[in-house]
Amino acid sequence: MRKLLILALVGLAAQLVDGALGMAYGLTSSTLLLFVGVAPAAASASVHLAEIGTTLAAGVAHWRFGNVDWRVVTRIAVPGALGAFAGATFLSAISTESAAPWMSGILFVLGAYLLIRFARPLRTRTGAGGLRGRFLGPLGLVAGFVDATGGGGWGPVATPALLVSGRLAPRKVIGSVDTAEFMVAAAASIGFLIGLGSEGFLLPTVAALLIGGLIAAPIAAWLVRIVPAQLLGAAIGGVIVLTNARTLLRAGDAGPVLTPAVYALLAAGWLLALVLAVRALRRTRRARATADTALAEADAPAPAAEVAVAVVPAEAEPRLAGVDR
What we know:
This protein is mainly α.
């Protein structure tokens, strides 16, 4: 019972992060499951089975709010599903000893990516034209494979690539990626079912993750309003990096001298990323405040002295009338 409660808290924490960032549910939950001793393939399988429910709910919500570009969904979901199926099959075929460093390595890289991305100002550029299938297809294939083998990574790989392209509104990017993830999670689950059998899914773990995620969903909707994504992204990136570094150091037989030095270096990098994230957030807020002030001044009515019109004195009216005659 205690373990199920911990897993429910894992699902809750992962959904809070995902709700505030629009990504990292799989990264967070898989990292924490590996940390508590769940086998890599079982962790990824359980996370993806739970994601079938969470991504379905997210996709319906995005569709209701008009955040889905169905052309993008169809062109990225099918290759993503194929990549996820291949990744699940690959992860199921290798031993637990080999899978743990592989999965932790992928999670470590994605965590480092979150640190770098959220340490800089969050910008998107605008552009024209639609996204082509020759771009969406390979992107979905790679993101799906990374997602299944790493226990997460669909959002961190696909979302930034679409945002940087500048050809789709940010809300449509997030909505389309989240909607397409339903097919990715389903395909990965089928791959794990074939590779591991039904015993590969830890159903109590799936239920606990799902319950925790459903409880956290409304809280995440509130949290995203008050917690800056800039800080949360840098914070969770550091947690993922440090947690997975533990597995990598053990796999590499790092000595008692090297291990503390690596941890100290990673902690220093995490602290630097947090400082840069705070500075970037302050610069963004100052720029936004300046822009709002300029807009308010432009919309304000002009002073009375500037709009005053000449008024003809009353005593001059008869004389002007006489001239007219």
